[in-house]
Amino acid sequence: MSAVLLLSGCRVHTLDDGVYSFVTGEILRDDCGLASTSVLGTATLRTEGNLVTLSLGQPDLRLVGTYRFSTEEMTLDGTLSNYSANLRGRECLVDTVNFHVDTVTTSPSSFTGAMSINYEARQPDECVCRFWFKFTANRQ
């Protein structure tokens, strides 16, 4: 009976672990002037039960999250501190950059979603902005 309880806690998801290539889709908000740049590139997805990590190559950041209950949808978050970025054509040292990702699995080797990246700085005001967009990720 204890084996049944242990196995029920480990959920197997259809999305394969591995390296994914990101393609930016619809831009939802771009206060930062980043729409014409390649923000993500590739990332490595790892799943352990309902826990998920997405390690970005650029910037060097690991997003951590979970699958939603009984679905093939994930929510992940990550934060950088004291990060240098070119925003609105200006070099900025921002205090924090917050990443939030919501995704839906479309096949064992792809997922789609939306990402918000919020840059926060005490000064100057030009370095405070938001970049939100939709994306598609395909396993390489």
Q: Could you explain the architecture of this structure?
A:
- There is one protein chain.
- By secondary structure, the chain is mainly β.
- The chain has a single domain, classed as Lipocalin, CATH 2.40.128.
- Helices cover 6% and strands 63% of the residues.
- The chain has one helix and eight strands, in the order αββββββββ.
- An eight-stranded antiparallel β-barrel has the order 1-2-3-4-5-6-7-8.
- A hairpin with a 2-residue loop joins β2 and β3.
- Per CATH, the architecture is Beta Barrel
Report the portion of residues in β strands.
over 45%
In which range does the helix fraction lie?
under 10%
Please provide the ordered H/E string of secondary-structure elements: HEEEEEEEE
Radius of gyration: 17 Å
Helix-strand category: mainly beta
* CATH topology call: Lipocalin
Helix run count: 1
Give the low-pLDDT segments. 1-8
Assigned CATH class? Mainly Beta
Distance between the termini: 40 Å
Q: Tell me the number of strands.
A: 8
Mean pLDDT: 90
* Largest sheet, spatial ordering of strands: 1-2-3-4-5-6-7-8
Principal-axis shape: elongated
Number of domain modules = 1
Characterize the main sheet: 8 strands, antiparallel, barrel
